[in-house]
Amino acid sequence: ARSAPRRAAPRAAHGMTSAPPVVDTELVNSCVNAIRFLAIDGVEKAASGHPGLPMGAAPMAYLLWNEYMKFNPQNPDFFNRDRFVLSAGHGSMLQYGLLHLAGFPNVTTEDLKQFRQLNSCTPGHPENFVTPGVEVTTGPLGMGIAMAVGLAGAEKHLAARFNKPDCELVDHYTYVIMGDGCNQEGISNEAASFAGHQGMGKLIALYDDNKITIDGHTDISFTEDVCARYEALGWHVQHVEDGNCDMDGLRKAIDAAKAVTDKPSLIKVTTIIGYGSPNKANSHDVHGAALGADEVQATRDMLKWEHEPFVVPEDVKAAFDHTERGAAEEAAWNATLADYESKYPEDAAEFKQLISRELPEDWESSLDALDYSPGNNEAASRIHSQSCLNALATTLPGLIGGSADLAPSNMTLMKMFGDFQKDTPEERNVRFGVREHAMGAIANGFALHKSGLVPYCATFFIFSDYMRSAMRMSALSEIGTIHVMTHDSIGLGEDGPTHQPVEHLASFRAMPNMYMMRPGDGNETVGMYKVAVKSRNTPSTLALSRQKLTNLPGTSVEKAMLGAYTVSDNTPEGETPDAIIIGTGSELENAYNAAETVRAEGKNVRCVSMPCWELFDAQSAEYQEEVLPAACTARVSIEAGSTMGWGKYIGTAGKAVGIDTFGASAPAGQLYEKFGITTETAVEALKSVC
Fold first, then answer.
1. How far apart are CA 138 and CA 477, in angstroms?
2. How many CB atoms lie within 10 A of CB 19?
3. 436 labelled catalytic
4. Greatest pairwise CA separation for the chain in angstroms
5. Cα separation of 588 and 593, whole Å?
6. Does the model's pTM come out above 0.90?
7. Which pLDDT tens digit goes with each residue over 23-57?
8. Among residues 44, 155, 330, 436, which one is catalytic?
9. 585: which DSSP letter?
10. HSE toward the beta carbon, residue 154, CA cutoff 13 A
C-alpha cells in the first residue's frame, strides 16, 4: 500500500544533516536507492561523471520507468512504446541504471562498470547510436527537450493520420527529465513555445529543480519564475515541492499531467542534488565529480544501503524487471494492429510501410518525371527544390517539414497539404516560426521517432548559424534530416553581409557525417534530393540559390549523385586535359563558359561539376582518378564562398576563385563583379595555370 507523503529531509548549505525517511514502501525505497547507487558506483569506478542528478532524480525516474511507461526491453524499437528523454544528459548513469534494472539485455552489470570507457555501451552522455533503449543523443543542454518536442509531434501527427474512433493505433507519451541548465538554454524556450502552440498533450517534462549548476547555486544567475514562463507558453504546470520523498505527490502530478490532453505538461520537481550524501548534497561538489571513497561509504550509511558496488538485491530486480510486462504490452499492441488491419487495410498498409522505415518502391518516380533539359524549367535552385519537394509529397508518405517563417522565400510548402497545427496535426507543412535552433532539433526528433518520417527544415543558409548545434546532432545521431538552405551566397544581393554566407560551405564540409550539397541546376537538384532521401543515416544540407540558374548541357541526375563528374571536355580520348576547372552551384555556369572560352584558344579543358565533396570522396579511387587525373595539376575551382578546403582538389599548383571576406549590400551582379567571381576571372585563372 502507498503511504502518506513523508516530510522532506532538511536542506542544508552543504550535505544532509539527518537520515532521510523511507519514501514509500520499503521495496520502492530499495528500488529508488538501487538507481542511486548504480549511478554512484559507476561514476566512482570511472572516476568521472555526474552522480548528483541521478541521486536527486531517482524517485521521479523510478516512477516513470516502473509505474507509468510502456516499453519492451527485448524490442527497444517496439513502435507504441513510451519515449523517454534524459535532457540533462550529463546524468547519463541514471538512464543506464534504469535500462539495466528494467531488463534491457544490452546494459549488463559489466557494461555499467565500463561507464565512460572506450567502446562501451555506456558513454559519458546518452547516445542513441550506441545504446539500444536510448531514444536521442543528449548532452548539449536543452537539446533533449527540443528533440522530445519532435518525438511528441511525430506521435501527434501519426495519431491524427491513422487513429480511428474504434481503434487507437498510435498512443504513447514522451517523458522528459530536464534540469536547470536545460531551462537556461534558449533552445528549450523556442521548443517549449512551439509545443505549447501545438497543444502537445502527450509531452510531459519533469523539471529537476535542484538549484545547482557547475558554478554553484543557481541564484547567482537564474532567478526567473520558470513555472510562470511555461504557463505563458501554453503549458499545464504543476510543482511537487518534495521530489525526494513525496512519491504520492509525484504520482498525482503525473496522473494530472496525463489527464490534460490539450497542453504539454511541466512538472517542477524540487529535489536535493546528491540526495543522501552527508557532506556534498545540495552543492556543486556533487554535480560533476565522483563522491570519493569516504563519501560513498558515508552515503551508503546514510541511506542504509548495505550492498556491495553494482549489486542489486533480488527483490529489486524482480520488482523492476519489465521483460514480461513489456512483452505483454507489445503483444497487446500487435493485436490492436491486427484488428486495425482487418478493418482498415489501405491505411494499415501505409502505416506498416512507414514504420518499416523502408522507402516505398516507387518513391523516385515523381522525381524522374521532372524535366530539366537545357531551356526547360530554368529557375533558381530553390525553385527546383520546391518542385522536388512537391513531387516527393506524392510518393513519399513520410515526408514532413517546413521553414523558420521563410516558406515563401525558401519555397518549401507542399501544395497538396495543409498546415500541421494544434487542430490539424495530420497535415504535413510545419510552421516552425522564427525558431531555427528548435526547428533543427524538432526535425531531428521527427526522425528519431523511428516511424518512417522523413523530415526537412528550411531557412536562409546564413541562419544555419542559429541551428548549427542541432545540425551537428543530426550528423552525430546518424539520422537523415534534410536541411534546405536557400540564399546560399552573395548572390542574394541587397540584404548585405549580415545575410550573405561566406564560410558556411567550408564549415559544413568540415562536419563529419554531413552531406554538404550545392547543386548547379535542375538535374543536380534532383540528384541531391535522391541522395538526401535515401540517406537515412546521414543528414544533408542543400545550399540553394536565390538567382536563376541555367540548365547546362552535360549535367546529369545520376552522375551528380556521385558527388563530382565531367560536364564537358574536349580532351581527346586517352589524353590528359591541359586544365580542369571545377564549379559548384551558381558558379557551375561560369566554369562551363570559361572552359569553352579557353578551348577556343586551342587548349584541352575539362569542366567538372562537384555538387557534393563527401559523395565524391566516397567513390572509388579509380573513379576519382577518372574525373580528376593526377597527371593534370593545372586546376581551377570557382565557388561564391570561402576558398578554404579547395586545395584538396586543386593542389598547390591550382587556383581557387572565391570570396574570403564578408560580402556587401548591392545587386547580385555588381557583387559578383566586385569580388571577382565571374567567367572572366575564371578564364584568367585557367590561363594562369595552363
1. 10
2. 13
3. yes
4. 93
5. 9
6. yes
7. 668 999 999 999 999 999 999 999 999 999 999 99
8. 436
9. G
10. 30
